[in-house]
Predict the structure.
Amino acid sequence: MKHRVAGRKLGRTAMHRMAVLRNLSTELFRHERIRTTLMKAKELRPFAEKLITLSKRETLHARRLVLRDIHDADVVSKMFDTISSRFAQRPGGYTRIVKLGPRRGDNAEMALIELVGTETAPAAEKEAPEAAEAAGKGKAKAAKPKKSERAEKAQKPPKDEAVPKKAARGKGAAKPKTESKGKAKSSAATRKVGKSGS
């Protein structure tokens, strides 16, 4: 019989499990969205939601109760200032779990756990400057998204434009040294020791 046995052990001792939940909840409140395994996310949800409910009280005692589990003062102040005011009228259900599929290495089911309302806040921040630019220029059309900086950096020049190494260095310039003699001796000494030791 499995009466009165609730929760997942996550393959950890009680103290380690509590430390994992505290660390996950700290990062969840700091970044408002984290990626973890599905089982950890399902265990984190009630733990984190109880802390949010405590932060809605906004009393010194509630702050100290939250500080028992969240040891980062900046995160606790964020919880009491912004997160509690965001969920002031909401009676629970502060988090959302989105399944992501299996992890490549060990096939563990991955999930994204996020605070409700975080998906709209970053999108609104990105769209607001673009709307202001379009309004400032008098264009009715929406602004096209710009290429990311990574895509621009990733483009390599054609081989015709590439300068050979010898030409770039010049005829009179000395050849750069690649390795000092001291390093060569020490690496040779370690090779000898490795061979004789085995």
Notes: Confidence is low (pLDDT under 50) at residues 139-143. The two ends are 56 Å apart (CA to CA).
